[in-house]
């Protein structure tokens, strides 16, 4: 067996699946999920329908895999965050998020700009809330009710800001937007005015 061939095959599989995923999220920005066909995805990804079926038995299996991948990636990102430390310096969280988004900018661009015709963004928001809440309640003396209100405010706002950046012409770096969110998270409007 030639061990030198395995990484090449793996890279090809990764490339093809990424092309399928990016094609699908591009299409989601244009039309409702119920009107997207396998042929649409295959044409957009520059593959044939047979290649699509080598990896997925249909669109909903593709969606499930995308949801699982997203959840896993964000879970790993948040598992490594020291919440108590992040309260004094929220850039810890936003640096990690920026790095994650930059690993596949095309995919996250499509994800954050698509119409909400599948619940990927709401699932992602719920996951971030739930993971952050576990850490906050474990590390800080905060009631569940107060954590719920704070996280609803902060995370919904954070997701909206990422959507705003992806929908802009992106002449300003993502880190600049993250700095603004970080100041708001740690010091509210006062922190924002200080930076001005």
Structure in words:
The protein is 78% helix and 0% strand. It is mostly helical. It has a domain at 60-195.
Describe the structure concisely for a colleague.
The chain is mainly α and 196 residues long. The chain has helices at residues 6-28, 38-45, 49-55, 59-79, 83-88, 91-102, 105-113, 120-139, 144-167, 174-195. The protein has a domain at 60-195.
Features:
single chain; 196 residues; mainly alpha; 0% strand; elongated
Write the layout of secondary structure elements.
Elements: H1 6-28, H2 38-45, H3 49-55, H4 59-79, H5 83-88, H6 91-102, H7 105-113, H8 120-139, H9 144-167, H10 174-195
Helix pairs in contact: 1-2, 1-7, 4-6, 4-8, 6-10, 7-9, 8-9, 9-10
Strand content: under 5%
Give the % helix. over 70%
Main sheet specs = none
Average residue pLDDT: 80
* Shape assignment: elongated
Number of helices: 10
Could you tell me the radius of gyration in angstroms? 19 Å
Topology, number of strands:
0
Q: Separation of termini?
A: 62 Å
Order of helices and strands: HHHHHHHHHH
Give the low-pLDDT segments: none
**Alpha-beta classification:** mainly alpha
């Amino acid at each position: 067996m030639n061990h030198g061939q395995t990484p090449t095959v793996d890279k090809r599989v990764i490339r093809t699946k990424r092309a399928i995923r990016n094609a699908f999220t591009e299409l989601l920005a244009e039309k409702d999920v119920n009107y997207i066909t396998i042929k649409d995805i295959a044409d957009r990804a520059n593959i044939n329908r047979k290649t699509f079926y080598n990896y997925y038995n249909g669109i909903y299996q593709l969606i499930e895999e995308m949801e699982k991948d997203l959840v896993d990636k964000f879970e790993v990102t948040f598992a490594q965050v020291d919440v108590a430390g992040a309260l004094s310096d929220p850039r810890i969280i936003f640096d990690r998020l920026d790095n994650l988004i930059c690993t596949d900018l095309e995919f996250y661009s499509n994800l954050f700009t698509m119409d909400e015709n599948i619940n990927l963004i709401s699932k992602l928001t719920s996951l971030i809330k739930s993971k952050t809440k576990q850490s906050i309640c474990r590390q800080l003396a905060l009631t569940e009710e107060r954590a719920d209100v704070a996280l609803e405010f902060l995370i919904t706002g954070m997701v909206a800001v990422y959507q705003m950046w992806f929908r802009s012409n992106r002449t300003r770096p993502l880190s600049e937007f993250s700095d603004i969110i970080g100041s708001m998270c740690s010091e509210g409007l006062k922190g924002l005015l200080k930076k001005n």
